[in-house]
Specification:
The chain has about 350 residues and is of the alpha/beta class. It has 2 domains: about 180 residues, Vaccinia Virus protein VP39 (Rossmann fold), CATH 3.40.50.150; about 80 residues, no CATH class. It contains 14 helices and 7 strands.
């Protein structure tokens, strides 16, 4: 064998005709190479592994009224789906500050947008929770901006990766942190939580009707992985729960994730600082996926409108159409609201 060059490493083999495990779906992880595979997955109503299908894109762009030369913020840049569309519309001359707390995904998104031709003159990535938007703007000497977008909740590449611990589809570490280098993991949070604290989180973060019963069974316990927590929830419900058990498990996971990442606290802080971050006439669009998020956004926008902070707000919530819900079931719970700074 010639030693002119080393052979590239062989792809890890998977069992059966099609890869099942998240880490084995190598074609889905490279949609830029295997575009046909990614298109087939999306057409089937699923999201390719390691990626995220942006939701209500046209509606968000319309709410922000973008044009070349504007400067704004994508406060939750995630996979970069919305950001890529924004950059296309504010170019040439526009700038977008992209914030995300996830140290694992932000470098990938930055590289993805760089490959599309958006360098630092157009896209400024910064690892930060969206609650720190005012500080981030000051750090880059941007001042008040023309627009801001926040796509709240959890991205598909986080939800689907078992190593992140957001889902109970397969076993994974019970982590759930957007930034896995900071704060308590979900396992640690549950181990320290009192019954009252967990019951309050289940009720507030997930509208769980059996919050007290579940909290009594789960609080103060340490679970080895995501499946152990899911099994404990089902056991607490008993056999009478039947097919509804998985719905309850999803609500428990959602409530714990929101608590671990203090998502409502971050949203409240962002909504308070938001008006000072927007120029007169500046526009903001917010995508929410839970009643607790939507309620906070609706109340903040309505209060701001009454007090004259916002010149206009969306009177009705905007939701995904039937075709988008079919192609991307995760869009079904999405709600979009917008406001215009006075």
């Amino acid at each position: 064998m010639s030693d002119a060059g080393e052979r590239p490493p062989r792809r890890v083999r998977y069992r059966g005709r099609n890869p099942r495990r998240f880490e084995e779906k190598y074609k889905e992880h490279q949609p830029e190479v295997y575009s046909e595979t990614a298109a087939k997955v999306i057409a089937s109503g699923k999201t390719p592994a390691g990626s995220h299908v942006p939701i209500l894109v046209a509606e968000c762009l319309a709410a922000l009224a973008l044009r070349p030369g504007l400067v704004g913020v994508d406060a939750t840049v995630g996979y970069g789906g919305h950001a890529a569309q924004i950059l296309a519309r504010i170019s040439p001359g526009g700038r977008l500050l992209g914030l995300d707390a996830d140290p694992l995904e932000l470098p990938k998104t930055t590289a993805r947008l760089l490959a599309l031709g958006y360098g630092e003159e157009a896209f400024l990535p910064l690892r930060s929770n969206y609650a720190g938007m005012a500080k981030a703007l000051a750090q880059h000497a941007l001042g008040a901006v023309d627009f801001a977008l926040a796509d709240l909740g959890c991205s598909s590449m986080q939800l689907d990766d078992p190593a992140r611990g957001f889902s109970f589809k397969t076993a994974g570490p019970l982590d759930m942190r957007m930034n896995p280098t900071r704060g308590l993991s979900a396992a640690e949070w549950l181990a320290r939580a009192s019954v009252d604290k967990l019951a309050a989180a289940l009720a507030e973060n997930a509208d769980e009707p059996r919050a007290v019963t579940l909290a009594a069974a789960l609080a103060g316990r340490r679970f080895s992985n995501t499946l152990a927590l899911a099994d404990a929830v089902r056991a607490a419900l008993g056999e009478s729960a039947g097919e509804m058990a998985d719905l309850t498990v999803r609500r428990v996971f959602q409530a714990v994730r929101i608590a671990v990442n203090d998502e409502f606290g971050a949203l409240d802080a962002w909504l308070r600082s938001l008006p000072d971050c927007l120029k007169p006439g500046g526009r903001v669009a917010v995508l929410t996926f839970h009643s607790g998020e939507d309620r906070r956004v609706k109340q903040a926008f309505r209060a701001g409108h009454r007090s004259g902070i916002y010149a206009a707000i969306s009177e009705e919530v905007i939701t995904a159409g039937a075709e988008e819900r079919r192609l991307n079931p995760r869009s079904s719970s999405a709600k979009l609201r917008w406001a215009v700074r006075a």
